[in-house]
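Moderator note: this is an archived Q&A kept for reference. The question asked for a predicted structure of one protein chain; the sequence and the answer are reproduced below.
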Amino acid sequence: MFLAGSSDRWFWSEDALPPLAFCVHALVHDGLPVPPFDRHPQGDGDLRGRGLDAETWCTWVFAVVVAQGRLSVLVRESDRLADRATLATLAAAASAPAALCPGTPELRARLGELWVGYQPQAERWRWDLTGGPRGVRNRLAPHEQRRMWKALLPFHERLPTISVFLVDYPTPVVMAVPPTTCLIAPGGTSADYVRQVLAAAELLAAAR
């Protein structure tokens, strides 16, 4: 999203990607606390029993972010037949988050089972947060979008962009995934969400 009528082409983007949401869903299912996602119940410990720990989870999230980023770049820039095979390979990898987990084969196998069961729920959730009643067009009125873009002005020279990926979590959360990505479980109001995006920008700028 960039400011209409401005010559400044700096932008921030927002999406709700089921593979990234699944990473958080796995934490909630298992009960493993990984700050800032540490305000959910204990869960069944199933994934921890197969080797999931905080370091593995964070590495997994980063791998999913990288895979999605590579896919997005290729989708935007690909205009050659030779790229289509690469595009198909990246799309398959990005849509199979369990395979990107660096843990044990047993852990990846169990995540694969959970992913199959989670996908229908994830697609409904994605529609709700992108085109549905909780989508950005309903969450942020046009004047609020302009106000947030202007509030991000101090970060235009410090960050090339900000990629916001919405996730489903019981309480509002912001997690920075440098260099330019953040995971946000949105707060209850538009003002809460604006504060979350600004907090994410602060975290990402501090990490550079």
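Archived answer notes: The chain has a mean pLDDT of 85.
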